[in-house]
Amino acid sequence: MTIAPLKNEPSSRDRILDVAEELFARRGYSGVGMKEVADGVGLGKSSVFHHFKSKAELYAAVCIRILARIEDRFVRSLAAGGTPAVRLDRCVGDLLDVLAEHPTHARLLLRSMFEDDDLPDDGPEGRAVYEAVGGILEPFSSLLKEGMSAGEFRLASVSHVMLLLIGPIVFPFASGEFGQQVLGKDVFDAAQVRRLKSELLDLVRVGLHAPSAE
Amino acid sequence: MTIAPLKNEPSSRDRILDVAEELFARRGYSGVGMKEVADGVGLGKSSVFHHFKSKAELYAAVCIRILARIEDRFVRSLAAGGTPAVRLDRCVGDLLDVLAEHPTHARLLLRSMFEDDDLPDDGPEGRAVYEAVGGILEPFSSLLKEGMSAGEFRLASVSHVMLLLIGPIVFPFASGEFGQQVLGKDVFDAAQVRRLKSELLDLVRVGLHAPSAE
DNA sequence: GTCTATAGGGAGATAGAC
DNA sequence: GTCTATCTCCCTATAGAC
Questions:
Q1: How near does any CA of chain B get to the CA of A112, in Å?
Q2: In terms of Cα–Cα distance, which of A70, A111, A43, A54 is closest to A16?
Q3: What is the DSSP letter of B42?
C-alpha cells in the first residue's frame, strides 16, 4: 500500500482495479485471466502480481472497493432523517442510483454472492468483505424493524423481507443483455433508471394489486 | 441422442447432466472442468466428450433441461384458470416450488443470465435457450397485461414490473450461503420456503406499507 | 461406449535483471 | 515498479485401441 501520487493520474494500482472490476463483472472470477487484466492496463502480468500478490487478493480488493462505495452512500442516506417510510424510499432510491451510475457494481456484487465457493472465505480479505456486507444489511434491518413497530410497515418477517428485496434492487442492473431484451431499451438509460425506481418504490409501497380489488 | 435404456438405471448421458448441473450451479461455466464432471460420474474425460462434443454443448444441455422443467410447470400453472390475481398467485407460488425442489436451478439460471458473454450465443443450442426463456416470459407478460386491463392490477409498466419481479423470485434460492446467513436457517427448508412464499405473495399483493399509513 | 495417451495451449505464480 | 523468461500444472479436445 503506497501513498497516492501528487499528480492527478491514477496510480497503477487503481488502474488495475478499474480494469479488473470491469472484467470480473463481465465474466466472473474464473473467467478472467491475470494476463487479460494486465493487457487491459497496459502492463506486464508480473507487474500486476507486484501490486496484488494473488488473483484472489485482486478480486477481494475489487469487491471491497465496490462495497465501500455502496455502504458509504447507503449509510449517509439512512442517516438523513425522516420517518421510516421516507427513509426507506430514499435509501432504496439512492441504492438504485449507485448501481445505475456504476454498471459493473450490481453484476459483480450478485456474482460475488455465489462465487464464494471459488474463493478463500477466510483470511483478512474475506473478513473485510463480510464486514462491509454486514454494514449494509444491519442498518437496513433496523430500519424495517423500526417501521414495523411504528406501525408504518406491515408486520412481517424482517429477514425474509430483506432477502426478498435484494433481488429487485440488484438484479435489474445485473441482468445485462437479458434486461435489455425485456425492456427493449438499455437498463442504464436515465429514463429507464427513473422508471425502474418509481415502479420499485410503488411495488414496495402498495404492491401490484389495484386498491379497489381488496 | 440414443434411446433411453429399458432398465430403470439412468443413462450415462443423464448422469453426466446431473453432475454437470450441480457443478455449474456451484462454480459457474469457467469454474468447472470436464475432468471434474467425468470424475463425478465415474467415467473418463473422453467418455464425457463422447456424449457432448464440447463443454459449451454440455452447458447448454444443462440449461435447456432446467428451463424445460420450469416452463412445463409454469405453463400448466397458468393454464389452470381463475382470475388474473388468482393465477398470478398460483404461478408465482409454483415457480418458487420448482426452484425450492431443485436447489441447483435458481443459481444456475441466474448465472446463465450473465454468463452469455462466455458462451456462443448463436448456434442451435443458444436459440433453444432463447426460445425456452421466451416461453416463460411471454405468458407472464400476458397475464400482467390482462390483470391490468381487468382492473385487478394497478396500471404499471409491464416490462419493468416483470424485470423487477424476477429478482425476488429467483434470487433467494440462488443466494446460497448468503441467504442462509440472512435468514439464520437453510433457505431450502420446507418452513423457510413456505415463509418466503407467503411473504413474497403479500409483497406483491399489498406492498410493505401498513394499510393505515396510506 | 469406454478407455489410455497425447496434443497444444493457457493458467497462476516466481526469479531475477534493470 | 516494470520487465523477460520460466516453472508447473491444468485446461479443452482429439486419436485410436478395445
A1: 10
A2: A43
A3: T
pLDDT at B140: 96
Instruction: Please check whether residue B96 is in contact with residue A163, taking contact to mean a CB–CB distance below 8 angstroms.
Output: no
A209 C-beta less than 7 Å away from strand C: no
- Helix, strand, or coil here: A4? coil
- Who among A110, A117, A151 is closest to B210 (CB)? A151
Model confidence pLDDT, tens digit, residues A114-145: 887 777 677 788 888 889 999 999 999 999 99
pLDDT band at A100 (very low <50, low <70, confident <90, very high): very high
pLDDT tens track for B22-75: 999 999 999 999 999 999 999 999 999 999 999 999 999 999 999 999 999 999
Angle at which helix A103-113 crosses helix A84-101, to 10 degrees, equals 100
Residue B169 has pLDDT above 60, yes or no: yes
Task: List, in order of start, the domains of chain B with CATH numbers.
Answer: 55-208 (1.10.357.10)
**Facing A153 at nearest CB: one of B175, B178, B210:** B210
The one-letter amino acid code at A56 reads A
Alpha carbon A158 to chain centroid, angstroms: 20
Give start and end residues of each alpha helix (H) in A150-184.
Answer: 158-174, 177-183
Q: How far apart are CA A60 and CA A127, in angstroms?
A: 10
Alpha carbon of A140: minimum distance to chain B alpha carbons (Å): 12
Q: Which residues of B touch A118 (CB under 8 A)?
A: 27-28, 31
Minimal Cβ distance to B168: which of A26, A168, A176: A168
Dist. CA B89–CA B198, nearest whole Å: 10
d(Cα B74, Cα A142) in Å, to the nearest integer? 36
Give residues with Cβ within 8 angstroms of A51, minimum separation 6.
Answer: A12, A13, A16
Residues 35-94 in A having a C-beta less than 7 A from any atom of strand C are 35-36, 45-46, 49, 53-56
